[in-house]
Amino acid sequence: MERTHKCGELRLEHAGSQVSLCGWVAKRRDLGGMIFLDIRDRWGLVQVVCYPDSPSYKIADEVRSEYVVALQGVVKAREDNVNPDMPTGEVEVECREMTVLNTAALPPFYITDDVKVDENLRLRYRYLDLRRPGMQANLMLRSATASIFRNFLADHDFIEVETPILTRSTPEGARDFLVPSRVSPGKFYALPQSPQLLKQLLMVAGLERYYQLARCFRDEDLRADRQLEFTQVDIEVSFMGQDEFFALMEELVRKIFRELKGLELKDFPRIPWRTAMEKYGTDKPDLRFGMELVDVSAIAAASQFKVFTCAIEAGGSVRGIKVPAVFSRKELDGLAEQAKLFGAQGLAWMVVEEDGIRSPIAKFFSPSQLLELTDAFSAQPGSTLLFVSDIDTFGVVLPALGALRQELGKQLNLYSETEYRPCWVVDFPLFEYDEEEQRYVAAHHPFTAPVPEDLPKLAADPGSAVAQAYDLVLNGWEIAGGSVRIHTAEVQEAMFKAIGIEPEQAQRQFGFLMEALGFGAPPHRGIAFGFDRLVAILAGENSIRNVIAFPKTNSAFDPMTEAPSEVDALQLAELKIEVKD
Q: What is the distance between the alpha carbons of residues 192 and 203, in angstroms, rounded to a whole number?
């Protein structure tokens, strides 16, 4: 039987039509005088009825869930038993003929969206998990998003170029996956953490506008928004200023949300990195709700509370947030534990009540100081003030409060899940100081250009240099990040020197880049969209694993294929590799 229609497309206008369908048996119901089957394919579900006088009845009596069948029948209106929850709920197919194309073992879980299944079991039988309508919808959304990227960029004169998967190891912030070479024993390829240097070379080559849906690999700890292998939409341009580039990327994102969500995104404000940290405690601010951080160091310094005054005297600060809720002592202890995950020593609190402040630290503040605090937060009765103090403002105080802000915003339903608030975060630091290595390292990557006026700081004061780097943030997720690239060998050499890479090491690791920059490299910039994260946001998923066909677990394991696995000793011998205990 050749399929004439898809299961999910049948409607009242098809009534009276003879159809041939193929799909899986999603559900079987035997009502004595007739058998009902729900047949599912990628496009949806339709009810099929088999009567005892039909040749199909005997076969329908034998089929079970997830059998693969082909059938012929006539579409009829469901006059008295319309199912409003199904797009095909106004019709059913009276089956005249049926063939079993394949049987199926009893599935380890029901193939429906409304059943809670352990994720490890889902990943063990991922091919069954992907039959669920919700998972198929996510993959179709992923495909549609990729098409919009490709069509938009092609319409704006970008060309797609594939870059190698087997390349050389270059330090870019994470561990490389190494691939041993059989023909060059003792030498290794590396899987790309990103096509960073190669896309810059494409600008040197004069292509001017490049993009790629690039597979990237980073050997790092996993979490809900991170996988060992992931996809990024890599974009690089020459001769384009920041305003023009931002406007182009905003138009692209607006198009994605317009076509896939039917929404018009609001403005894309630009927030300096320092402002984002001080107001929201993170460089990935969620703008859907307020609860901004407040610096109360000046008030706290005049108090008698030693925890606050000692931190301030040591060069730190006291910051706080106003939460529109009152918590139990157990809940406050839980919030304190969360703050400690970010290095905070504890969490101070004050509850604003009609007759004043209730807090174990209130006795260390004068009445006028308590009034100053409530005025600083515009606090009303029924709210709670949470404080963190430390000598490290940007490393401890702000991140701890930022994490509490985000968690409480979710717990207290302070924003809508259907609202989308993008922003650009700009003016990042060029360097971070690595206490373990006792040197500066690149905050973004070592090919990011400083703002022109900070070029002298590369040698004189690296810690205060500002990068021409930018992130595109949406609802607390970084969905894209990029920068202006260094395009002269002189500045690149100065950058390497600032992070402790001597000329000999630079030549050994990046000689091909340095050579290329000497052959007329144009000014260029780029950005990379975290494709998996963006699709997860569009799909309303909290984990990118739900929008990737075959992901790994948090322990970097694939329960379906049982990768990683041991390999044959002969393969290791060919690679001149010995595995030691």
A: 18
Instruction: From 388, 470, 386, select the one nearest 426 (Cα to Cα).
Output: 470
* Segment 416-434, tens digit of pLDDT: 999 999 999 999 999 999 8
Contact call for residues 487 and 456 (beta carbons, < 8 A): no
Fold category of 289-411 in CATH = Gyrase A; domain 2 (3.30.1360)
Q: What is the pLDDT of residues 290-345, one digit of tens each?
A: 999 999 999 999 999 999 999 999 999 999 999 999 999 999 999 999 999 999 99
Asked if 57 contacts 51 with a C-beta cutoff of 8 angstroms, the reply is: yes
How many other CB atoms are found less than 10 A from the CB of residue 524?
Answer: 22
- How many other β-carbons are positioned within 10 Å of the β-carbon of residue 253? 21
The pair of structure tokens assigned to 218 is 């980073």
For domain 7-102, give its CATH number from 3.40.50.1000, 3.90.1150.10, 3.40.50.1970, 2.40.50.140: 2.40.50.140
Tell me the C-alpha distance between 378 and 391, whole Å: 26
Cα–Cα dist 224/20, whole Å: 42
> Under the phi-then-psi rule, with left for phi > 0, alpha for psi from -120 to 50, and beta for the rest, what region is 552?
beta
Q: Is the pTM of this model over 0.90?
A: yes
For the residues of 16-55, what is the DSSP string, one character each?
T-EEEEEEEEEEEEE-SS-EEEEEEETTEEEEEEE-TTST
Q: Are 443 and 428 in contact (CB under 8 A)?
A: yes
Which fold does the domain 120-269+526-576 belong to in CATH? Answer: BirA Bifunctional Protein; domain 2 (3.30.930)
